[in-house]
Amino acid sequence: MCSGVLCMVGLDVCAKWLLETYAISQLVLLRCGFSALLIFWYGLTRAAPGALKPRRPLLHLGRSVLMAGSMFAFFYALPRISLAEVLTFAFAAPLIVTALSRPLLGEVVGPWRWLAVLIGFSGVMVVLQPGQGLMEPAALVALGGAALYALLSVSARHLSATETTISLSLYLFPLPMLISVPLAVRDWITPAPWDWLLFAACGIFGGLAFVFMNAAFRRAQAALLVPFEYTGLVWAAGAGYLLWGEVPAARTWLGAGIIVSSGLFILYRETRSHRPQSQADFPLQEAVVARAEGPGRTEQ
Fold first, then answer.
1. What string of H, E and C letters represents the secondary structure of 94-118?
2. Contact assessment for residue 174 and residue 29, using Cβ atoms and an 8 Å cutoff
3. What is the 3 state secondary structure string of 12-71?
4. What is the pLDDT of residues 236-281, one digit of tens each?
5. How far apart are CA 200 and CA 217, in angstroms?
6. Class of residue 7 by CB neighbours under 10 A (exposed 0-12, middle 13-18, buried 19+)
7. Is 68:178 a contact under the CB 8 Å cutoff?
8. Distance CA 264, CA 167 (A)
9. Are the C-beta atoms of residues 189 and 22 closer than 8 Å to each other?
């Protein structure tokens, strides 16, 4: 999960840089294209036979819809607010995942974790500061993107019983690409050679991030994994300062601190409620290895 988060921040850094010159539609098209090629190549060369075959195509289509909305939302917000602020709003996603773990996944969420979720959302309100004229549209769009991303995370856990890590990652991208094609044709700017490398980096970072994260969701409960996404704030704040001179406002740090503290408390309650299980004891290098036990059985 931590490796996936680091890749996601790398994607955001490259995207924020590119959005200074290129349209969102062009970024979505090329980012998805490079990611899909990377995952498709991996599925053909390294994964078990049948790993690319979707067993529940309609649910994959729904995930692709969520992916499109989340991607366009975050890419809209990136050039308009600081990188650390975008990540802070993205941190609402783990809170939403925890809240949805009970009704959608049947996972137990006790009263203490519900309290942590409510406190975490108070941190979101600290950053937004509603009623004081400081609520930017880009911030609300980023928060909406976080909600869509939370549903994407929950769906990964729900589908992991029948789908492989490769299929969960690959079939996120078709719909965003289809939506972005006509818009990208209209707004197309031929990238400079260096920018082609950045577009490719977006795709590589994005593809690896979802492979790592989807593999993580196969090995542990959603409520246990998602607090590790908070490590992204460190990388985002550092990159924003070094590359764009962004210094997050005090309210951003305060709100992020409340959100992170809530997430860590959720993790603490999870570890108190459940003894460590063998499913979480996989070495990192196994996180992207797809393997099958035989016909009709899913990747382990």
1. HHHHHHHHHHHHCCCCCHHHHHHHH
2. no
3. HHHHHHHCCCCCHHHHHHHHHHHHHHHHHHHHHHCCCCCCCCCCCHHHHHHHHHHHHHHH
4. 988 899 999 988 888 888 988 888 888 778 767 766 665 443 332 2
5. 26
6. buried
7. no
8. 30
9. yes
pTM of this structure: 0.78
Per residue in 194-224, pLDDT tens? 999 999 999 899 878 877 877 787 787 766 7
For the chain, the structural domain boundaries read: 2-275
Other CB atoms within 10 Å distance of the CB of residue 213? 27
Burial 276-289 (b: 16+ CB within 10 A, else e): eeeeeebeeeebbe
Q: How far is CA 23 from the centre of its chain?
A: 21
Q: What is the pLDDT of residues 34-51, one digit of tens each?
A: 989 988 988 888 777 788
Q: Is residue 74 a contact partner of residue 86, using CB atoms and an 8 Å limit?
A: yes
Tokens of 85: 């602020």
